[in-house]
Design goal:
Amphi-Trp domain-containing protein; 19% helix; disordered N terminus; globular; alpha+beta
């Protein structure tokens, strides 16, 4: 199973309303099914297992990132919990990391996304200073 987790800012992107009033989506909703049917493609369907947006302070966001990092280091996985719903994220040993920072007017967006699959190969390095 290939999954991706990203950390990004709260935004007013098209489709944000699909998350509902509380900003979360835990229903395993299939995404892009109409596109796949319309093109006649036979491919794996993407399932959104969690979608959540909230406004946080920079300190709160840093604590969230630290907790994810700590869980990955200690257990190799972490779990999103909202109410009775839980979604475990357990990446394989090698992950592909995609970092993006963009600015449009006065809106800044920084994304960290990681994905994995059994056939993932190691690539170039980037450091954080």
């Amino acid at each position: 199973m290939t999954e991706a987790a990203g950390a990004g800012p709260v935004g007013d992107e098209p489709g944000d309303e699909a998350a509902g009033n509380d900003g979360a989506l835990f229903d395993g909703q299939e995404v892009d099914e109409q596109t796949a049917k319309a093109s006649g493609e036979k491919r794996n369907r993407e399932q959104v297992l969690i979608k959540h947006k909230e406004v946080q302070t920079v300190q709160e966001f840093a604590e969230t990132l630290e907790k994810i990092a700590q869980k990955l280091k200690q257990e190799g996985k972490f779990t999103f919990v909202q109410g009775a719903e839980q979604v475990e994220v357990a990446p394989s040993d090698q992950v592909k990391v995609d970092v993006k920072y963009k600015v449009k007017g006065d809106k800044h967006e920084f994304e960290i996304e990681f994905e994995w699959s059994p056939a993932l190969k190691k690539s170039g390095k980037m450091s954080i200073e």
